[in-house]
Amino acid sequence: MKKLSARRRHPLAALVVLLLALACTGGLYAVFAPADKAQADETAQSLTIEEGKKLYSVGCASCHGTGGQGTSDGPSLVGVGAAAVDFQVSTGRMPAATSQGAQVPRKKAVYSQAEIDQLAAYIASLGAGPAVPTKEQYGPEGADIAKGGELFRNNCAQCHNFTGKGGALTHGKYAPTLEDVAPKHIYEAMLTGPQNMPSFPDSTLSEQNKKDIIAYLGEVNGEETESPGGLELGGLGPVSEGLFAWVFGLGALIALAVWVAARTAKAKKS
Prior knowledge:
This protein is mostly helical. Among the domains are: 42-94 and 103-124, Cytochrome c-like domain (Cytochrome Bc1 Complex, Chain D, domain 2); 133-219, Cytochrome c-like domain (Cytochrome Bc1 Complex, Chain D, domain 2, Orthogonal Bundle), CATH 1.10.760.10. The chain contains twelve helices and two strands; from the N terminus they run H-H-H-H-H-H-H-H-H-E-E-H-H-H. A two-stranded antiparallel sheet has the order 1-2. The longest helix is centred in the C-terminal third of the chain and has 32 residues, at 238-269. 24% of the residues are buried. The mean pLDDT is 84. Keywords: Cell membrane, Electron transport, Heme, Iron, Lyase, Membrane, Metal-binding, Repeat, Respiratory chain, Translocase, Transmembrane, Transmembrane helix, Transport. It is found in: Cell membrane.
């Protein structure tokens, strides 16, 4: 008993007991505690990436390379981010048709949204890039429509026209109409700059600026929107307005001149 009592009073006895208690507590927690949420999320993300890789190998690798490095038939996808994938595939521009024109047109999507998310996750794993925007980023809440109109006219109207009706570019290319385009896709297009369009990162147009532009387009292209100036002539701006002035305005003046001349000639004969 004296020997046992002496061991209990040993200076290291308390430390040994504490270490044993911590080891037992940790072991019991590892056995009975629920699975770590972060680990579960990581596993789910890994599965999503793996499924996306399978889809990529079947539908994209022939043009963009087996590892997304790009080929002579398609650019590299390393670093383009999930937003670029979501835009291109959701709008049906990718996969592209075998025979292409000056640019890839919008068409019906081939993949479901779940499959698009898987493809986006795989491409995002190849290199950091813009993420898919959230509804808070492109929704109309808190947007300044007037500011959006100013930003659109300064940065976008040169190609897409004043109300987003679209317009022609060089060598058969064109700026597509922005009517009936989902707000998320407009945001993604500004963020990634698809095809002929320049990109507008947050350093150029902030999140709020993008939100304002999207709200402006939703306002001018809404179903109940009326043209305050009367007949809008397709909303194509000075080209259609100038054509209208030349054809109908100048035509009316010519017709009036012919009528006056005919009346004068008739009067002289009389």
